[in-house]
C-alpha cells in the first residue's frame, strides 16, 4: 500500500509537467510539504516531447534534468505517478482529495536494466510519440523518465508475455499482482497544473487528418524531428517513408474558429516558425498558410529571421480544404487574401498547427471553482485555496507557464501559512 502523510499544511499539486514541477519545487524549497500527483508514468509533461524550444532553439533536456535533480534531492516533495484526483471537497485550509493510483506492475527495486523489455514480444502504440511508433509491453516511457522505472502495459497482465517479463527481471522488481489503490489526502491548498492537450485534428473534417496519411499535426512533426523520436530525426512521409522536401504549415488549424476552438493558443505561430528551421536544416522548403502571425515582444526578431529565409514562403490565407492529389500529395485549396487569387497547391507533407485546450477534467473540481468558456480555471480570487498554474489557467508558452507556476506557489504558501498561524 502507498503510504502518504499529508496535513492541512500540505500543498497538493495536480499535474507534473513544467508548471507542476515548478510549483512543487518553489513551495518545497520554501520549506512546505508538497504532494505532486501526475497521471502519466513520469513527470516532465509535454516539454519532454519537444525537440527544441523557441526562440533560442535550445533543447528542453537541460532544464528538465536540472528540475528533476532538484526534485529528487528535496525531501519535502512526494511524487505519485500514474495517479489522478477523483474528487476534491472542502474549503481553503481544509481540503480532502481522493486520489486513484493505477498499478505500474513494477516496484522501486527496478534498475532500468531493460531485461523485461527484451523478453517480451507484445507491442503497443507509443503515446509519447503520439502513436507514430510502438513500444514494447514492458517499457521505459522515455530516456529521461523520472522515476527511472519500467512500466508493464496493463494489456499484458494475464498473458504469457507478462510472465516472461517477470522471469527476466534479475532484481524481482515486477509485481503482476499490483492493484489499483485509492488514497485520501488532507491538504490546505491545491494547485492545478494539469497542462494542455493538442486539439483533436480529426474534428477538422475539411483538412482530412483522419483520411490522408500525409497530413499530420505539429506535435507529431515535433517528435519526428527529434533524433530520439520515431523516425530518428528525419522528416519522412507517413505514406511511403520518403524524405520530404516540400512542407506546408497550416496555422490556426481549429483555432480562432467558432466551430472548434474559439481562442488563440498563442504558441502555434511560433511553433511553426520554429519548425521551418527543422525543415531548412533538412534541405526542405516550407510554405506557411496563415491568418496573421502573432510573434510579439522578444519573438519578433525570430519571425524576421524566418521571413529572411529563402526556403520559407508565407501565404496569407485560411486554407478552405485539402484534397488528395497525385502520389498521395495533399492539395491545399483556398484564396490568397492579399492578392485574392485562388490556389490549388500540392505539397508532399502538411503540418496542422493545432491549438491548445486544457487537459483538466472539470468534473473533479468543487462546484464553486470558476472555469471560463474555454475550460480554463480562472484565478479570479473566488476559488479559496485552489489555484491554476500554467496551461490549466490559460494557453501559455513555457516561459509564461513557469512564471504562472511561481505565482501560484506563492499564493498556496500564503494559504498554508495562514493555517499554521491560526493553529499556532
From TrEMBL:
<keyword id="KW-0411">Iron-sulfur</keyword>
<dbReference type="GO" id="GO:0051539">
    <property type="term" value="F:4 iron, 4 sulfur cluster binding"/>
</dbReference>
<dbReference type="InterPro" id="IPR039650">
    <property type="entry name" value="HdrA-like"/>
</dbReference>
<keyword id="KW-0479">Metal-binding</keyword>
<dbReference type="GO" id="GO:0016491">
    <property type="term" value="F:oxidoreductase activity"/>
</dbReference>
<keyword id="KW-0408">Iron</keyword>
<dbReference type="GO" id="GO:0046872">
    <property type="term" value="F:metal ion binding"/>
</dbReference>
<keyword id="KW-0560">Oxidoreductase</keyword>
<protein>
    <submittedName>
        <fullName>Heterodisulfide reductase subunit A</fullName>
    </submittedName>
</protein>
<keyword id="KW-0004">4Fe-4S</keyword>
<dbReference type="Pfam" id="PF12831">
    <property type="entry name" value="FAD_oxidored"/>
</dbReference>
<dbReference type="InterPro" id="IPR036188">
    <property type="entry name" value="FAD/NAD-bd_sf"/>
</dbReference>
Amino acid at each position: 500500500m502507498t503510504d502518504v502523510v499529508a496535513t492541512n499544511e500540505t500543498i497538493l499539486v495536480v499535474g507534473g509537467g513544467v508548471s507542476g514541477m515548478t510549483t512543487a519545487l518553489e513551495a518545497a524549497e520554501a520549506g512546505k510539504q508538497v504532494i505532486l500527483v501526475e497521471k502519466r508514468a513520469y513527470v516532465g509533461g509535454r516539454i519532454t516531447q519537444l525537440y527544441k524550444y523557441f526562440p533560442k532553439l535550445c533543447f528542453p533536456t537541460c532544464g528538465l534534468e536540472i528540475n528533476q535533480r532538484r526534485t529528487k534531492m528535496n525531501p519535502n516533495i512526494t511524487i505519485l505517478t500514474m495517479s489522478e484526483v477523483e474528487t476534491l471537497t472542502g474549503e481553503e485550509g481544509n481540503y480532502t482529495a481522493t486520489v486513484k493510483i493505477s498499478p505500474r506492475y513494477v516496484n522501486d527495486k527496478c534498475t532500468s536494466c531493460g531485461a523485461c523489455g527484451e523478453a517480451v514480444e507484445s507491442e503497443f502504440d507509443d503515446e509519447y510519440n503520439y502513436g507514430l511508433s510502438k513500444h514494447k509491453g514492458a517499457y521505459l516511457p522515455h530516456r529521461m523518465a523520472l522515476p527511472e522505472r519500467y512500466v508493464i502495459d496493463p494489456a499484458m497482465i494475464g498473458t504469457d508475455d507478462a510472465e516472461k517479463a517477470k522471469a527476466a527481471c534479475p532484481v524481482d522488481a515486477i509485481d503482476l499482482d499490483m492493484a489499483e489503490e485509492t488514497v485520501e489526502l488532507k491538504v490546505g491548498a491545491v494547485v492545478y497544473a494539469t497542462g494542455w492537450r493538442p486539439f483533436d485534428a480529426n474534428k477538422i473534417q475539411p483538412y482530412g487528418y483522419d483520411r490522408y496519411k500525409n497530413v499530420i499535426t505539429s506535435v507529431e512533426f515535433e517528435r519526428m524531428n527529434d533524433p530520439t523520436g520515431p523516425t530518428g530525426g528525419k522528416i519522412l512521409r507517413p505514406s511511403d517513408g520518403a524524405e520530404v522536401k516540400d512542407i506546408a504549415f497550416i496555422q490556426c488549424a481549429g483555432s480562432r474558429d467558432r466551430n472548434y476552438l474559439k481562442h488563440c493558443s498563442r504558441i502555434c505561430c511560433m511553433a511553426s516558425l520554429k519548425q521551418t528551421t527543422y525543415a531548412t536544416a533538412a534541405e526542405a522548403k516550407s510554405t506557411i498558410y496563415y491568418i496573421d502571425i502573432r510573434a510579439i515582444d522578444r519573438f519578433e526578431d525570430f519571425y524576421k529571421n524566418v521571413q529572411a529565409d529563402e526556403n520559407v514562403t508565407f501565404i496569407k490565407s485560411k486554407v478552405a480544404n485539402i484534397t488528395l492529389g497525385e502520389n498521395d500529395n495533399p492539395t491545399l485549396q483556398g484564396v490568397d487574401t492579399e492578392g485574392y487569387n485562388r490556389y490549388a497547391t500540392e505539397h508532399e507533407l502538411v503540418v496542422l498547427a493545432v491549438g491548445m485546450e486544457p487537459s483538466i477534467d472539470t468534473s473533479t473540481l468543487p462546484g464553486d471553482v470558476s472555469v471560463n468558456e474555454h475550460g480554463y480555471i480562472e484565478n479570479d480570487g473566488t476559488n479559496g485555496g485552489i489555484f491554476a498554474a500554467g496551461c490549466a489557467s490559460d494557453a501559455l508558452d513555457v516561459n509564461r507557464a513557469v512564471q504562472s507556476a511561481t505565482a501560484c506557489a506563492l499564493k498556496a504558501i500564503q494559504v498554508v501559512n495562514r493555517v499554521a498561524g491560526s493553529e499556532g
